[in-house]
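call fold target=Rieske (2Fe-2S) protein
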Amino acid sequence: MTNWVTNAWYVAAWDSEVDVAPLSRTICGTPVVLYRKLDRSVVAMRDACPHRLLPLSMGIREGDSIRCKYHGLKLGPDGVAEEMPMKSEAVNRRICAETFVVAERHRFVWIWVGEKDKADPALIPDLWPCSSEGWTFDGGYYPVACDYRLMIDNLMDLTHETYVHSSSIGQVEILEAPIETRVEGERVFVTRWMAGIDAPPFWRAALGKEGPVDRWQICQFMLPASVMIDVGVAPVEAGSTLEAHDQGARGMVIDFMTPETETSHHYFWGMARNFMIHDPGFTARFKAGQGAVFAEDKVILEAQQDAINRNPGLKLSAYRIDEGGVRSRQVIKRKIAASAKVEEPV
């Protein structure tokens, strides 16, 4: 049994990553090739020629089809053979490569690697700030050599900011503020409110003024592997609360962890914000700053995975600050178990 939910939508790529040229990416242990047809819709196919298994991502695009670069077997966007290696040979349409259901939403290309008949677009996580009027959204991608659940642990426990991100968003008040963790169905929430503090460098620059602020962090885990974090600061005099905080500088950190293997994943990160949304220069600078912050997480988590590999007799410990990650792992585990039970033969 794998450590991830199979029948679920995962982010395969940013919309800008998928174009005419084939893109190779392993999703939940499955090698996939992605490309756009002439009408700009996306094709997702198993990245293995059904002839000699050469990756199709090495192939040659011809119209909406792809030709294997080894012996020239040509496959249509539906994965079915269109032309044999010997052009005089009759086409055997039983020769085909597996294809996958895809969808585009919130600037992402989503893929369903499980049972096709269960691929309901309504199940795509509601990343509403990424597509809502009055907000702007951008971000980036990192391959990370660690179990995707370690990144979920990281994002659901922001106490690490004090030390890992001390030069940007970290501050000691994060360790001092009480946190609340709750589970609502298949979602997990961790909330923290920091009243009357000095804003850290990253947020002081975003707010554009000095003075004491109220700061909030509301982490939300959603299946199969996304974390959305409502973050920001507002001047104390603005009167923000945990329930209503549109004043000041507010953002939604969007994180989606797509498993690659048991010890590696694709990390799609970004931030939607409702301030300075018409300033592309600020967006570029903000993205660069966020990318630098997440690069610090990448270093820590890859070192953690390496230590786990080198200490097979030791297990992770969980303290009070880890409750959000622990609860999220429990939700994932229950979903996997429930799926396995449904799939068992009667």
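return ok
The domain at 9-121 is CATH 2.102.10.10 (Rieske Iron-sulfur Protein). The helical segments are 148-155, 161-164, 173-176, 201-207, 280-310, 323-343.
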